[in-house]
């Protein structure tokens, strides 16, 4: 079977058993891989407590992984989030994904809870459970170093071990399965790390067609100013957005009380390059190389991280921000939720933390000591405990990233309709509202946004199932990737058929959430955005979000999705009708 291996590796940590099963071809055709396959494999488990031993933790690659398709050396991890309670997926790039595919697998599914700390070693021959009591309590770097001789590693840090609700899973090369607390799911299983090795290849049905499609994608990449332009992400990484967000007056500042931070130039893309002699870096085999690192190999922070450890907490020091990022990576903590939780806590107590205090608190969070024990629960639970729930800038419990919704109304809607909570990547309206790609839309209007968001969600669900990086689509389109997929698998796919697959995936996620009690009451922004203005100036007025128009567009969105006015399914048998 070209593109897929058709094999799942199961590991039951409680019984210390591992086995492989074949995947039906029709299931792969219907869900592709990555996010889609993981979501399908969650069926029947989606109602379980996120930290229950029976809750699966699923590592899934796509049909393009293992080929030279640009940005396709990625995987998706799927489970249920302990932070939000929603179905959750998170994507990361690197050699781990490539080697999981080379080990002959489309997915690794881990269940059970080990009584003692373990790691899993995966090879083409199967999976082995390793006893690693000496690694429990170690940093991510130490864990990766201890396991690296066996292959590519993904691991948790102390935060995952201690059940921090926004603990991440780190790839050995510095990439992270960052949001939603999947590191806590892994830690609850007593699983410190997974190491994979393999030398298998991914079959390609039509090599000539594939090479032509790949050349088309690369041509579009090279023509994209967002990717390879003078100020593009290949040149400066995602911190290239710092100056743009300031100019658009939508940089979240001091827990979203403002939208401009005057010192943001201290941590812009050019500033990071100048201060750290930043070099190009990136995911394995990726031609874009959007990540940046120091000459000594230290990974430098992304846009969301510099903005939230910077403006959101009122910190102007680039050195402090870089230290906080490095500490999060070592301890296994999501930078967005960590910074946003500290910011909400800072507003509640009347003083935002400075750089030194942030670093002390991050360590306290990871080890659940002092104030860190409460902060480890995320901003929603922290502010509820303090009697100030309105200060949590989150949707469905997931802290908002570094795009203020008062400056982009499509983003305001997309935060709320996202199945995993306040996330910019489900629909990524920044692309058309700010970067003007592929077409420009009015960022201060809700007109047409319901349909645009629904289409983008379906498209991105398909992209996350290929699995490809969303940055690819600053240049290429779904048409080119449909051609790559067809050339790889020998099955004809079109952009429309991929969107239909994406729609199936999105609605399945929504159904799972509805079963778990989510409805329209959860599809709402924090009150601050409806009643407080942002930082107007320089000819740009940042007004509160228009509540009636938001509510009207949300109802349009529900109708487009075939949902009731309460945002739930009229057909209780929806899931049973899906492949």
TrEMBL record:
Q: Which InterPro entries match?
A: Ald_Fedxn_OxRdtase_dom2, Ald_Fedxn_OxRdtase_dom3, Ald_Fedxn_OxRdtase_N, Ald_Fedxn_OxRdtase_N_sf, OxRdtase_Ald_Fedxn_C, Tungsten_al_ferr_oxy-like_C, W-dependent_AOR
A Pfam family name for this chain? AFOR_N
> Which GO MF term does the entry hold, naming one?
metal ion binding
Does the record carry 4Fe-4S as a key word? yes
Domain Aldehyde ferredoxin oxidoreductase N-terminal, first and last residues per copy: 4-200
Q: Which domain of life is it from?
A: Bacteria
* Segment forming the signal sequence: none
Asked whether the UniProt record includes Nucleotide-binding among its keywords, one would answer: no
> What does the UniProt keyword field contain?
4Fe-4S, Iron, Iron-sulfur, Metal-binding, Oxidoreductase
Cofactor(s) recorded for this entry are: tungstopterin; [4Fe-4S] cluster
Q: Which family does it belong to?
A: Belongs to the AOR/FOR family.
The identity of this protein, by name, is Aldehyde:ferredoxin oxidoreductase
Q: Which organism is it from?
A: Geobacter pickeringii
Query: Species lineage, top-down?
Result: Bacteria, Pseudomonadati, Thermodesulfobacteriota, Desulfuromonadia, Geobacterales
């Amino acid at each position: 079977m070209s593109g897929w291996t058709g094999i799942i590796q199961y590991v039951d940590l409680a019984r210390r058993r591992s086995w492989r099963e074949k995947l039906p071809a029709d299931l792969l055709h219907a869900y592709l891989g990555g996010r889609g396959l993981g979501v399908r494999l969650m069926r029947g488990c989606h109602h379980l407590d996120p930290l229950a031993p029976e809750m699966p933790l699923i590592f899934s690659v796509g049909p393009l992984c293992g080929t030279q398709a640009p940005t396709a050396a990625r995987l998706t991890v799927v489970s249920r989030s302990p932070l939000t309670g929603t179905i959750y997926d998170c994507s990361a790039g690197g050699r781990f994904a490539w080697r999981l595919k080379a080990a002959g697998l489309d997915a690794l599914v881990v269940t059970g809870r080990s009584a003692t700390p373990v790691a899993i070693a995966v090879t083409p021959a199967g999976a082995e459970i390793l006893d690693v009591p000496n690694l429990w309590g170690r940093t991510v770097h130490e864990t990766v170093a201890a396991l690296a001789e066996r292959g590519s590693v993904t691991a948790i840090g102390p935060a995952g071990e201690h059940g921090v609700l926004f603990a991440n899973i780190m790839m050995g090369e510095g990439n992270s399965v960052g949001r939603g607390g999947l590191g806590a799911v892994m830690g609850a299983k007593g699983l410190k790390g997974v190491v994979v090795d393999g030398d298998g290849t991914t079959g390609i049905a039509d090599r000539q067609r594939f090479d032509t499609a790949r050349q088309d994608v690369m041509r579009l990449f090279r023509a994209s100013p967002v990717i390879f332009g003078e100020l593009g992400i290949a040149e400066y990484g995602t911190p290239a957005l710092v100056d743009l967000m300031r100019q658009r007056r939508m940089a979240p500042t001091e827990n979203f009380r403002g939208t401009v931070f005057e010192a943001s130039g201290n941590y812009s893309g050019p500033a990071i390059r100048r201060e750290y002699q930043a070099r190009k870096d990136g995911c394995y085999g990726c031609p874009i190389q959007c990540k940046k690192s120091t000459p000594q190999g230290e990974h430098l922070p992304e846009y969301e991280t510099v903005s939230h450890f910077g403006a959101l907490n009122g910190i102007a020091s680039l050195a402090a921000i870089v230290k906080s990022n490095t500490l999060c990576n070592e301890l296994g903590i999501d930078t967005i939720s960590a910074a946003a939780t500290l910011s909400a806590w800072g507003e509640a107590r009347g003083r935002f933390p400075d750089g030194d205090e942030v670093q002390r608190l991050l360590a306290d969070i990871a080890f659940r000591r002092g104030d860190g024990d409460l902060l480890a629960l995320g901003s929603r639970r922290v502010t509820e405990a303090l009697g100030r729930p309105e200060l949590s800038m989150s949707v469905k419990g997931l802290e908002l990233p570094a795009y203020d919704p008062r400056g982009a109304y499509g983003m305001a809607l997309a935060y709320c309709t996202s199945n995993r909570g306040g996330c910019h990547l489900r629909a990524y309206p920044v692309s058309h509202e700010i970067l003007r790609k592929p077409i420009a839309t009015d960022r201060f209007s809700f007109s047409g946004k319901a349909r645009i968001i629904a289409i983008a969600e379906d498209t991105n669900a398909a992209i996350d199932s290929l699995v490809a990086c969303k940055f690819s689509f600053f240049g290429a389109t779904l048409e080119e990737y449909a051609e790559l997929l067809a050339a790889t698998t020998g099955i004809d796919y079109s952009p429309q058929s991929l969107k239909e697959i994406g729609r199936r995936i999105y609605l399945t996620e929504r159904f799972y959430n509805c079963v778990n009690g989510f409805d329209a009451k959860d599809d709402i922004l924090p009150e601050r955005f409806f009643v407080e203005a942002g930082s107007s100036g320089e000819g740009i007025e940042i007004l509160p979000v228009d509540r009636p128009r938001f509510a009207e567009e949300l109802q349009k969105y529900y109708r487009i999705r075939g949902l009731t006015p309460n945002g739930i399914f009229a057909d209780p048998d929806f899931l049973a009708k899906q492949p």
